[in-house]
């Protein structure tokens, strides 16, 4: 699959999971050094917000928007994943007053498993996944132009329909 970054075509490595498929299970570490495994979150629907670099404007907008939404929706696990380091994520969260589940994928295990790794720029593609309690993907958006925001309304509507 190809996406663009400010108009420049980039290839995503691997296969991207599709709606209707089982969500590939993964484990990543959060800012509290806890291992978060997707399969352990089956008590509630999960929304995964993937951002290329937390220190860029569109990634900040996306993360702040989902942080605000997370505070207003009960019964949903919200995860933000980037391949920034733990320290970069901690610094950004502290500076912006954001308190949400941030997972760092510095080894790119999640990015490769979900087919979101862009080798040419060594970043993850911007994406949203909504996963139901049976671990099925019910919504996915891999943003075609990485420098633009995802469709928040569709992703939030998909997760709210599960409650």
From TrEMBL:
Annotated EC: 1.11.1.-
Q: Does the keyword Oxidoreductase apply?
A: yes
Could you tell me the superkingdom of the organism this chain comes from? Bacteria
How far does the signal peptide extend, from start to end residue? none
Query: Where does the Thioredoxin domain start and stop, copy by copy?
Result: 17-163
Task: Extract the GO molecular function terms from the UniProt entry.
Answer: thioredoxin peroxidase activity
Q: Which Pfam families does this UniProt record tie to the protein?
A: AhpC-TSA (PF00578)
What class does this enzyme belong to in the EC scheme?
A: oxidoreductase
Protein name, please? Thiol peroxidase
Give the species: Vagococcus allomyrinae
The lineage is: Bacteria, Bacillati, Bacillota, Bacilli, Lactobacillales
């Amino acid at each position: 699959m190809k996406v663009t970054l400010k108009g420049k075509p980039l290839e995503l490595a691997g296969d991207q999971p599709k709606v209707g498929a089982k969500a590939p299970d993964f484990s990543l570490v959060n800012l509290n050094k806890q291992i978060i495994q997707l399969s352990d979150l089956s008590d509630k629907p999960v929304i995964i917000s993937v951002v290329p670099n937390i220190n860029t404007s569109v990634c900040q907008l996306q993360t702040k928007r989902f942080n605000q939404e997370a505070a207003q929706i009960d019964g949903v696990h919200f995860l933000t994943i980037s391949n920034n380091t733990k320290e970069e994520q901690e610094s950004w969260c502290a500076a912006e007053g954001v308190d949400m589940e941030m997972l760092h994928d510095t080894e790119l295990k999640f990015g490769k498993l979900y087919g979101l790794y862009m080798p040419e720029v060594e970043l993850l593609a911007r994406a949203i996944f909504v996963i139901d309690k049976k671990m099925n993907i019910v919504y996915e958006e891999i943003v075609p132009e990485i420098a633009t925001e995802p469709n928040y309304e569709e992703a939030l509507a998909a997760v709210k329909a599960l409650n």
